[in-house]
Amino acid sequence: MKIGIIGGGQLGRMLALAGTPLGQQFAFLDPAADACAAALGDHLCAEYDDREQLRRLAESADVVTFEFESVPAETVAFLAQYVPVYPDAESLRIARDRWFEKSMFRDLGIPTPEFANVLSQQDLDEAVRQIGLPAVMKTRTLGYDGKGQKVLRKPQDVVGAFAELGSVPCILEGFVPFTGEVSLIAVRSRTGDTRFYPLVHNTHEDGILRLSVASSDHPLQTQAENYAERVLDKLDYVGVLAFEFFEVDSGLKANEIAPRVHNSGHWTIEGAGCSQFENHLRAITGLPLGATGKIGESAMVNFIGEVPAMARLTAIADCHPHHYGKAFKPGRKVGHATLRSADPARLRAGIAAVQALID
Amino acid sequence: MKIGIIGGGQLGRMLALAGTPLGQQFAFLDPAADACAAALGDHLCAEYDDREQLRRLAESADVVTFEFESVPAETVAFLAQYVPVYPDAESLRIARDRWFEKSMFRDLGIPTPEFANVLSQQDLDEAVRQIGLPAVMKTRTLGYDGKGQKVLRKPQDVVGAFAELGSVPCILEGFVPFTGEVSLIAVRSRTGDTRFYPLVHNTHEDGILRLSVASSDHPLQTQAENYAERVLDKLDYVGVLAFEFFEVDSGLKANEIAPRVHNSGHWTIEGAGCSQFENHLRAITGLPLGATGKIGESAMVNFIGEVPAMARLTAIADCHPHHYGKAFKPGRKVGHATLRSADPARLRAGIAAVQALID
Description:
The structure is a homodimer. Chain A is α+β, with helices and mostly antiparallel strands. Chain A folds into three domains: 2-85, 3-Layer(aba) Sandwich (Rossmann fold); 114-174, 2-Layer Sandwich (Dna Ligase, domain 1), CATH 3.30.1490; 180-356, ATP-grasp fold, B domain (D-amino Acid Aminotransferase, Chain A, domain 1, 2-Layer Sandwich), CATH 3.30.470. Helices cover 30% and strands 28% of the residues of chain A. Chain A is built from 13 helices and 17 strands. Chain A has helices at 10-19, 51-60, 73-80, 89-95, 98-107, 121-131, 155-158, 161-164, 221-235, 268-271, 276-284, 310-313, 344-356; strands spanning 2-6, 25-29, 42-44, 63-66, 115-118, 135-139, 149-152, 170-174, 180-188, 194-196, 200-205, 208-214, 239-248, 251-258, 297-304, 319-323, 333-341. In chain A, strands 9, 10, 11, 12, 13, 14, 15, 16 and 17 form a nine-stranded antiparallel sheet that branches. Chain A has a four-stranded parallel sheet with strand order 3-2-1-4, sandwiched between helices. In chain A, strands 5-8-6-7 form a four-stranded antiparallel sheet, with helices on both faces. In chain A, a hairpin with a 5-residue loop joins β9 and β10 (194-196). In chain A, α1 packs across α11 and α2 crosses α3 (73-80). In chain A, 50% of the residues are buried. Chains A, B: It is an enzyme of class 6 (ligase). Chains A, B: Pathway: Purine metabolism; IMP biosynthesis via de novo pathway; 5-amino-1-(5-phospho-D-ribosyl)imidazole-4-carboxylate from 5-amino-1-(5-phospho-D-ribosyl)imidazole (N5-CAIR route): step 1/2. Chains A, B: Its EC number is 6.3.4.18. Chains A, B: Pfam families: ATP-grasp, PurK_C, RS_preATP-grasp-like.
């Protein structure tokens, strides 16, 4: 069984690490010559719209999946002529566009911040009148890790903001006074079987995820699963889907979905019965899903810019380093550590020990 | 950090799967064009005495290790001129020769079956007079999985037996009426730090390991660790060493050591804090050792000849399939399943479910 993956970064790399023991082989299409997943399979070094190489990938693979959601729609449609593609074109169309995504939440009765479509400065002025300030303006597509966003606090922030974000389609979102950010990693099989990992508490800095802690018996678990299930069923989704929520006094408000394995699910490599990576592969290849329950207490600390010295990381009890084999660069996700501990106190000590190596 | 591995089979493959998240890269020297580890690193397709390729490996690697112990002594000596090699030449010299190995056990006061060196049929006749029948005759080197062995039960079995095993140096071992077979996976760091996994109960069929079950509070754990520590310290050993014992009424008798990661330690991939593969890599690269304690209850079922259908394996709760990506062939180790369960009853059910797919 050969899996084609669009993108050859750390998510592709971790998918291959999970799938190799299942006897799967991997091919990655990625324009970067130094794509870090290439160590674990064939590397087609080509642009995402290179039809010759896409066709080569499709013809060599039994199924194709994605490492990121901002794949051109044409790429997905082209591939789907030759090979099963999961998640499918419609799931990607929705998930890569904040307007489609939030509209779907609304249609499915899932609470979400107030939002409006912004195709011009005039739209923006009108949206600000309706939603009020503060608000967050985001490009509809291609945003990640806080990029493609602008917080509008005062009326003068609104002036020229549309041009400032590149005069591309945007949405304006009402500011949500959230008390926390959580994500739910869900997986749905080809036959509609659906499983959920425990909710994860996430801490961001400068828009980049820094820390994820898997919860135990989170009071909003059922609500999160209910919302995610509506989306999964609506899209007839196959694979892992990550659902990010704001925690507010009244419960959860949907922020966004990612139609792929997700940074906030990396703890599952050591911390769950079956990791998000293996479960994604099981789902798209038609295998039964694996266990999503926690093993002990788990957390994940991201390494941004550089990975601390391996000798220091491996000296920390319960610490499992994950070095992505990428060149170090400020602001770049280059690795993470999973901590899996017998109890919460020990987990907290492990997190603190890893964080002490970062600052 | 680049690791050179002599041999590119499943042990090399699982070493690479464990080391890739540590940011390590791998190169394998193996004469087989279809070496299954090649998916995870560079493959130097060459004989083990090909000095040009050995030198290439040594020059590209920061450290070199072995997947099997029957490496020619000249290969080890040649490599050691260029690069640190662990385990070292002396450890391999002892471990690959049953006569040296058992002599070391005797010198270190470690109980072992009676044994005698057999360099001729005359030696064999004399050894049989001393040790008695039944006894087991084994080639001193190159035996594995029951190959290179002959059980001598009756006097007529002894006639011509030396020629039958190829007229190569052998030992004769007294038959041990053992009640069980256990192995201890030990790891020793460059600085002499030593850790042990829990004793594993092993079941063989036709000389090939079929089932390993990790024990809990085994009454002979301390004795096994004591014996293993004598060997590790004597050899100033670096890396994982597997120690196989017979369980007899009076305790343990040493059967053999393997200076490498070992089939009876595969359960540690999911079943221990840090797997034997990661700990071997930590040891030889000078990193601190990882936790060797069990997570839940664990066992390993070997797949000989073929791997059951992945759809059936993944349908079994707690089952983690490991497909080596090798061509199926009768008698060949082509995969295993690790079972990691919350309690012994569930573990037994999992083992039975996996075994039901084999017969």
